[in-house]
Amino acid sequence: MKIRLDRTVCDGFGVCAKHAPSYFSLDDWGYASLVGDGTVLDEDRDAVMRALLDCPVHAITEMGDRRPRQSAQPCTTASSEDPAENVKTESNEAQWGFTR
């Protein structure tokens, strides 16, 4: 996993440094800086993802393609159900939860 910090978006809340202090440092005014090149070790992934998700201004982004943690198996079960029956329309909106 690799992350990027956009310092022009950062508003200095400091949440990132609270969750992942080894990847984010704060300057004298509380604005974040990325420590290192943004490469995140697997054992630190959860803490960095918490910092990414909790950033109130979304200044932290994950770079590159997401790789699944475990091998994904393609769906091999053939469904005889017609997909057109599941289309969300005004006539069946009560079934899929839309309210006006």
Automatic annotation (TrEMBL):
Q: Which InterPro entries match?
A: Fe-S_cluster_ET (IPR051269)
Sorted alphabetically, the keyword list is:
3Fe-4S, Electron transport, Iron, Iron-sulfur, Metal-binding, Transport
Q: Which GO terms describe its molecular function?
A: 3 iron, 4 sulfur cluster binding; metal ion binding
Q: Where do the record's region annotations for Disordered lie?
A: 63-100
Polar residues bias (residue ranges): 70-80
The protein's required cofactor(s) are namely:
[3Fe-4S] cluster
Gene3D superfamilies for this protein: 3.30.70.20
State the Pfam families in the record: Fer4_15
Recorded protein name is: Ferredoxin-1
Gene symbol? suaB
